[in-house]
Amino acid sequence: MLEGNRVSRISVRGFAVASATAVTAVGSVVGVASGSTAVPSNDAEATASDATLLADIPAGQQAQVQTASLTQQATAQAIQADASAKKDAEEAARKQAADDAVAKQKAAEKAEQEAKERKEAEEAASRDATRDASSFAVQSSYTVAQIQAMAQSMVPSGQYQCFSNIVDHESSWNYQAVNASSGAYGLFQALPGSKMSSVGSDWQTNPATQIKWGLNYMNDRYGSPCDAWSFWQANHWY
Q1: Under 8 Å CB-to-CB from 167, ≥6 apart: which residues?
Q2: Closest CA relative to residue 125, chosen from 162, 163, 158, 161
Q3: Residues 167-210: pLDDT tens digits?
Q4: Cβ proximity of 228 and 215 under 8 Å
Q5: Which listed site, 42, 147, 207, 222, has its alpha carbon 20 to 30 Å from 56?
């Protein structure tokens, strides 16, 4: 009778599944291993006949079934942990990218502000320098060295080389240079030359007056002599 009862507890299907492979029994055993209890349904008897209990599996296969169940759980946990770690890494990367973008923007704004302040300081120095034009004694003629010395005392040191480059190309430091075809005159080949009278009536004979006018022109039109020189290099006029 006991043996007969034993056989009746295990359905043919359940016995076949348990005997064929331990892995296919994992789904039925997981609930038993974890201690969970299934909610009975209307087909409780049919379900019970199809279920394979851990106690019904041969003793030699029980360890395999339990190991497979634990492996399945561990794999699921590992997948979940990997997904969580990936999500955290992506969030950290987005935050770092945002922080880097903000830092770059602040650095760019700071550099722009510093450049603006430097330019304003240079322009102020240039404006102050032009006030020295009237301090030079008037002479009947001037050498190139004398004219260059005037310019060096009137043009900010950081802008002088650019200023000098333009004068070199325009007149070779000849304050009485005249363009035969256009009538452009002086160190800067002003056209017409009479426009230099805005800073002094002696514009034709006094290189200091011409230097003052040329410096004002470069600052007003381009921002500085170096900006004027950059334009000249690109266009060969200014």
Answers
A1: 151, 173, 187, 188, 214
A2: 158
A3: 999 999 999 999 999 999 999 999 999 999 999 999 999 999 99
A4: no
A5: 42
Task: List the structure tokens of 160.
Answer: 């002088």
181 token code pair: 């075809």
Question: What Rg value do the Cα atoms of the chain yield, rounded?
Answer: 47
Q: Which residue has the tokens 């170096």?
A: 226
